[in-house]
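Our consortium's second objective concerns turning raw sequence data into structural hypotheses that experimental partners can test. To show how far this objective has progressed, the report includes one record in full. It was chosen at random from the queue rather than selected for favorable results. The single chain below, 667 residues long, was entered without modification.
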Amino acid sequence: MQDNQFELTAEELVLRVETLSSELSATEEQLAALRAEYAELSTRYAKLEQEHLAVLDSQSWKLTKPLRALLDLLKRFPPFAFLHKALRYARRFGLKSAFRRARSRSHEKKASRRDAYSAEELAKQKKRVFPKDVTFSVLVPLYNTPKKFLTEMIESVRAQTYAKWELCLADGSDGEHPDVGEICLAYAKMDARIKYEKLEKNLGISGNTNACIDMATGDYIALFDHDDLLHPAALYEFMVAICEKGADFVYSDENTFHETPKDAYCPHFKPDFAPDTLRTNNYICHFNAFSRELLLRAGKYFRPECDGSQDYDMMLRLTEQAEKIVHIPIILYYWRAHRGSVATDIGAKPYVIEAAHRALRDHLARVGLEGEVLDTVVPSMYRIRYKLKATPLISIVIANKDHTDDLDLCLRSIRNRTTYKNYEIVIVENNSTEEETFRYYDTLQNDPRIRVVTWSDGKGTFNYSAINNLGVREAKGEYVILLNNDIEILSPEWIEEMLMFAQREDVGAVGAKLYYPDDTVQHAGIGIGLLTLAGHYHRGFPRRHPGYMGRLIYAHNVSAVTAACMMIPRRVWDEVEGLDEGFAVAFNDVDLCMKIRAKDYLIVFTPFAEAYHYESKSRGLEDTPEKRRRFMGEIDRFYGKWQDVLDAGDPYYNPNFSLDKEDFSLA
C-alpha cells in the first residue's frame, strides 16, 4: 500500500491532499453543526423541564385535577373519544388534513360496510362445481373465548357458500370456562365438519394452534382467530384463486369492527404481495390460507418463541417458500376490536413487538440478508437497517441548464451533509445561455469529485432522457443516482439508505421521500394508472403524516419512483438500456421503472432518505400548442408500450382506491 503511494505523481498527490482536506473540512462543518444543534436542544429541554415542573407545582394544576380525571373518563366513551382524537389530529397535522381525513374515513366506513355480494350471488356460489377437490382446514385455537364471540365465529364458518371445510378447534381454556367446551361439543354433534379437542393445559397461542394443525386433514390450511368473523364468500373466493390462478398462498382484505360488521370502521385495503412491505409490517394478517405442501416446506408448526407475533413469523416463512401468492382485494375477514385485543391497541400486548423483532431477525438470516431490526414511530411497523456489503463508487448524475442558485444549493447540501464518502458528481451541462453558469462551473474544478460534461443535439432542444444517458455513460460508479438540480438533501445518510436496498440482487431501483418547500409530500412512490397514467402517492400530505396504513413511515415496494432522486445499480441500468429517449420530457422515469419491473426486479421507496424538491406545484403545465403535442405524443407512446400493465392495474395500489386522486381515498 505504501509502495503504491510513492508511485503517485506530484499532481495526483496534490489532488489527493485536496480531496482529503475537502472531506475533513466537510466533516468538521457537520460536527460543528451537530454540536450547535445539541447545545440548542439541551437549552430548550432544560427550559421545558423548568416550565413543566412549574406547571405541576402550580395551584391551577392542583385545582383542575378533578376536571382532568373527568376528561380522561369521558375519553372512554365513543363520541368523546372521537372528538378527542379529531382535535389531537388537527393540532398535529392541521385543520385541512383533519377535514380530509374525516371525509375519507366517513367514505371508507360507508363503502367498506357495503356487502360485495347480493343474496342471489351467494346462492349461485353454493351451486358452483369446481375442477379441483379441495378441503379447507380452518384452524381456531381457543382460550377462554366469550360465549357470544365463540358462537358468532362458528356460525360465520358454517355460513360459508363453499361447503368443503373442516373447523378444527383446540381448546386451552382454564377450568373456569367450561362453557367453551360445552358450546363446541354441541356444535360438533350438530355438524360433523366441526372437530373439537380439549387440551390438557393451555399451550400458548402457538402450541394451541399446533394442536389444530395435528387435527387438520384438509388440502389447504386457513388461520382464523377465535373472536373474529368470516364473510360467507371467503372460502369460495379462495377456491376461485386456487383453481383459476394455481395459488398455494391466498390472502384477502379485512375490516375492523366492534359489535357487528355493520359498525366496521377501519378497512385495510392491501397491496399484492410485496416482500419489503411485509418485512416492515404484517400487512397480510387476515384472512389467509395456504396449501398443506407449502406448510410442510416452511416448517409445519408455529414457533412458541414467537408467541404474540407467531402469525407474522409464519407469514414470513410461508412467503419465502410460496410459488404463487394471490391477493383477493375484497373484504372477506372481520377483525373484532375489544378491550385487550391487539386490534384495539397493540400496547395491550407489548411482548408482541419483541416477538416480531425475533421473527424478522430469523427471516433475514434464512434469506441471507444482514440487518438490524428497529422500531418506527408506530408500534408494529418496523425499520430494517441493512448492513452494507461494501462502499462502492456512487455516481450522482445531475442535468443542469443555468439556474446556478439551485445547483449550488444542491451541491452544497450533498457535500456538507452526505456521510457517504465514495461518490462522484457528474453535471451534464445542456444548452445553458448565461455566462454566470460557466463561471460557476469553473469554481467547481477545485473539487476532484465533480466533473462537468456537455450534451447538445445542436438544436438547443431539451431531452431529459438523452441528457441523463450521456451522464451515465460518463459515470464511473457501480451505482447511479439520477438527481434533479433543484434538490436539497436533508438526510446525511441518504446514500446509505438507498444503497442498502440497491445492493440486493432482487432490487432494480430505489426512490427517496421528497418534500415541497412548504413541508408537504411531493413524492413517496408513483402509482401506475393514477390520474390517467401515473401519479404520486400521498402528494400534498403533511411531512409528518404517517400516510395510509403507515406507508409514509416505512420502506415498501412500489411500481415506480421519480428520477428526481433515484438510485439504480449500473448493471440494471445497462440491462434495461437506460432511459428511452423517445420520452424527452415526461414519463421517462416511469417508463424506466416499467422496464426494470419487466426484468423481475423490485422497486423500493424509502422514507429515510429525505430531501426538498424545489419544483413548483404547478410545474409541468403544457401551456403551448407545441408542448401539448409533445406531451400527448409521450402519453400515446407510454400507452403503446405498457397498455397491458395499465390494464392490469398497479399491484401495490388496491383496486378499491380511486384512480382520480393520490390520497388513497376509495373509488
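The partners drew two points from this record. The first strand starts at residue 136 and ends at 142. Residues 137 and 221 are 5 Å apart (CA to CA). Both points have been shared with the crystallography group to help prioritize constructs.
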